[in-house]
Design brief:
0% strand; mainly alpha; 5 helices; 91 residues; single chain
Length: 91
């Protein structure tokens, strides 16, 4: 199974430009789970991402994926400029 890791990393790297961050995270997690103990670190090193990112994807897979169209959790990311500065855009 570990012999397939370079091939998996190559496939993920080739498809990466077309994938959003959630799909990359969950795909990496799907590749790490069958490897068992140490799989998260192996996949993270092979694809050049953080082990925490892959672990978060594993947690998402265990919880069950919800196709809600979101990439990030609700209210994650920057607040809209209009919320930070109500006069923004009228100057």
């Amino acid at each position: 199974m570990r012999r397939l890791l370079p091939a998996f990393a190559g496939v993920l790297a080739e498809a990466a430009p077309a994938l959003d961050e959630r799909v990359r995270r969950v795909s990496a997690a799907a590749g790490a789970r069958p490897l068992g103990r140490g799989g998260i670190k192996l996949v993270a090193a092979a694809i050049g991402t953080s082990a925490d990112t892959v672990a978060k994807g594993v947690a998402e897979l265990k919880a069950g994926l919800v196709a809600d169209g979101r990439v990030r959790a609700k209210a994650a990311g920057r607040p809209a400029a209009e919320r930070r500065d109500p006069g923004w855009g009228r100057r």
